[in-house]
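Margin note from the TA: students keep mixing up input and output lines. Inputs are the sequences; the output is the structure of the whole complex. Example:
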Amino acid sequence: MKAREKHATGAAIDVGDGAVAREAALIALDWGTTSLRAYLFDAAGKVIATRVSTAGIMNLPVPAEEGGFDAAFDEACGVWLSEAPSLPVLAAGMVGSAQGWVQAPYVETPASAQALVAGIVRVRAASGAEVAVVPGVLEPGALPNVMRGEETQIFGALGESGDEAQQTSLIGLPGTHAKWVVVEGERIARFYTFMTGEVYAALCAHTILGRTMKHPATPDTAAFLRGVNVAREQGCVGLLATAFSTRTLGLTAQLAADEQPDYLSGLVIGHELAGLEAALARRDVALAGCAPRLIGAEALCERYRLALGAFGCAGAHLVRQATEHGLWRIAVQAGLVAPR
Amino acid sequence: MKAREKHATGAAIDVGDGAVAREAALIALDWGTTSLRAYLFDAAGKVIATRVSTAGIMNLPVPAEEGGFDAAFDEACGVWLSEAPSLPVLAAGMVGSAQGWVQAPYVETPASAQALVAGIVRVRAASGAEVAVVPGVLEPGALPNVMRGEETQIFGALGESGDEAQQTSLIGLPGTHAKWVVVEGERIARFYTFMTGEVYAALCAHTILGRTMKHPATPDTAAFLRGVNVAREQGCVGLLATAFSTRTLGLTAQLAADEQPDYLSGLVIGHELAGLEAALARRDVALAGCAPRLIGAEALCERYRLALGAFGCAGAHLVRQATEHGLWRIAVQAGLVAPR
């Protein structure tokens, strides 16, 4: 009856008559700053329904102190929980930060999936459901690094193959704050954050470089790779210097207005990879010898694959559904769900 | 009579009864993107009056196609020219760019003062005055560099001493687009542009780093030098990575909110100097062995002097009135004025 009532009131429902919720075994949330993705898993670990909203922790439907987290949670998962109130719930991402629903203190590197599970913090929703929140990871040091959400994706990507307990591998997560993570023996050993996406956006929108740019209808791969190679070859002078060439190459008729956005994108990503290469080299790891997994939007990961190729790194490849796999894996390891 | 009329109408006049204009020998303009500075020189090369306005070439009182340059020029210099209509006029800066009053094509490096004089382009004002416009300098290459206005300041700084015809020297011009210029035998041999000031402003105002910052009442030199040293020691990983430490050091209670602006300023300037050091090293020049002249706002130059000290470069020193000296020197060399 409840399901039919919800249908009648027009609440956002993407499951039918409860059949989906009846076979569900887990609700898992990827709850970041600007979005909330809710996944419904069956007992085999298959995603059987997904709900996406813009109710990130900085964009709640009502303020946090007025129950914003509960409101967003109900909006995303209320339908499922009304059908199956005892479903376990796991959440990862900024929801566990100081500005989140409950603070799940960082686990320090080297961080294993077991350590993440041990660091889970629980919060009771107004509806009665208990939400288990995955902690982020902190690498202490002179330049500390933090992640929230990526740790779950990383363990999702690692879960793909089963034979890497002794291996060292490199995982890249392009985006606003790109992360590069060194995994040793299935533990997050260390990682680097590059403000690549955010700095690129700021350069385009809030510096002189944006004034002469025209955004092309389709991405200009040649201009992108030109920028990557300039960063690779002239990298030592730094992004503050090479970025200005976007303008001077335009002034001297060597770079068209509609080539400038992709050229600058190539420069910024190229400097990221040059910095990564240098950081790895300090530990005697050659970027060119790595076959990094990439996690993120497919088109962006493809850009990174091309840019990595310019650095002699040929084996980069995209991992799909790392978030879903990671949430499932941590839920299983935490005993929230018993896989069928 | 004319002068008294202008007094009567309240036009902006900062000379008295014409005595100043009567002893004047040259009008020289530093005409940039956002400001116009007009200097009145006597025949000994002394500045006897100055007028400053916000009528930069992107901020003219009326649009350029409606006589905006004439209007700004009259507003700045009309009083002087009404007293002494035959005064020669020299202008340097963005006024000679493609968006300026008249385009004075770039002189290529290596560029001497003679080459700048030979590249002067003249424009006739509506009032009848002829304005001689100094060209900018272009360094061609894979990463071209351009300057307009700085070339005049550089020759003003060089003019300070008379014994450097055979020397190599380094001149820094901090600011929105900081320039570092290598002068060989009184010629601008090559130079680098770093978007330091503009990128710092964009990072503070348009990225996550600004959200946790509080600007202190007085600059925090210790936080600034901490940032410089992080950039110097960890520079190879690049600004995209080190910048994020402004946030993570805050998150881990190692950097207070009111330390963050100066720390980030130190990082950005430190990366500029690390890039400069690397660029000089490729030509076997050690930054630490240089005693650079600095041209610019005094407080900013003092920051650079401190930052250079962290790079082992102890002899940096401020050059005052480089713009005025450079305008005078070029005017003399161009035969616009005969020094007394």
